[in-house]
Design brief:
globular, mainly alpha, 307 residues
Length: 307
């Protein structure tokens, strides 16, 4: 009975991990269009990031005070690790991505972000001593190929005019990959809300000098009500919930699996476009989607441990 109960609990946790990561991918897939509308004449990129990080930090502090009763962070080394997480996972990560996206095309940016899971596997091998199996490596290659074809196909255009933005998005992909791996020991020691609370507090201090001037230029009185709702969605959904769910999933899954879910974002974006009758589902797109799912399945398979 105990063995059956443990097996059921493990399956239940695995299902929750995949549902959490699927929710994160769906929120991110819907965000590209929403964020673009917010920054289209209403809020500049750095000010947009400051609002995201500062508001999310407040939400994490409220959630921590209401629902979490875990031990305090007393080790100075952990505070240093939290500050590093805030640099790579919140501050510089968001600044590079949104400002880079402003200087390049959405297709280029989306394809460059598909490099992230590859770096996650490399950092996990270096920092956590996770084994790079043939199946995991092939799964990432398979999913990356499907994502690149689904996102861009022949429309990719890397040129000197987008070089600066492309470089910023690429660096963002690398440092976010590092964050996913580097934060794992903290998430095994503390609650996800605790880690996120300190990460976003430090993150606010990092982005404040970059976004304060642009924040002062926002004309709040002329902003449509729709933009306020879009800002709320990005703060609560795309920032607070996504980081909380990602952090929780990292407690029970490998960084490689968490990173590989980025490949589902173009699938969900395509599905949203098809359901809203803004795009058509072709045989080619369906085939690329199957490649992505096959790749994520291979990455999610646990590595066999030999005695």
């Amino acid at each position: 009975m105990r063995l059956e109960s443990a097996t059921f609990a493990a399956v239940n946790t695995t299902l929750k991990v995949h549902l959490s990561l699927l929710t994160v991918s769906a929120l991110y897939a819907a965000t590209f269009t929403i964020a673009k509308e917010v920054m289209n004449g209403y809020v500049q990129p750095s000010a947009f990031i400051l609002i995201r990080v500062a508001a999310a930090a407040l939400l994490f502090f409220i959630a921590h005070s209401l629902f979490v009763r875990d031990k305090k962070v007393e080790d100075k080394k952990d505070f240093i690790r939290l500050f590093v997480c805030s640099m790579f996972g919140v501050g510089f990560n968001m600044l590079l991505f949104f400002n880079g996206l402003h200087l390049t095309s959405p297709i280029n940016g989306a394809v460059l972000m598909t490099c992230s899971p590859i770096f996650v596997v490399v950092f996990a091998a270096l920092l956590l001593r996770e084994k790079i199996t043939a199946a995991k490596g092939f799964g990432i290659l398979l999913a990356a190929t499907g994502a690149a074809l689904l996102i861009g196909g022949r429309e990719l255009n890397f040129s000197s005019s987008t070089a600066r933005g492309d470089l910023m998005v690429a660096v963002n992909a690398i440092i976010y990959s590092f964050y996913l791996v580097y934060s794992k020991p903290l998430l095994l020691k503390y609650k996800p809300v605790t880690v996120s609370k300190w990460t976003f507090l430090f993150g606010t201090l990092i982005v404040l000098p970059f976004g304060w001037h642009e924040f002062g230029q926002i004309q709040w009185t002329v902003m449509p009500v729709k933009v306020y709702w879009q800002l709320a969605f990005v703060v609560v959904g795309t920032t607070f919930l996504t980081y909380l769910l990602n952090s929780w999933a990292l407690r029970y899954a490998t960084p490689a699996l968490v990173g590989s879910y980025i490949y589902l974002q173009p699938v969900l974006a395509t599905l949203i476009a098809v359901l809203s009758q803004k795009d058509m589902l072709t045989i080619a797109k369906f085939s690329y989607t199957l490649l992505i799912f096959a790749g994520v399945y291979l990455v999610s398979k646990p590595t066999k441990q030999h005695a």
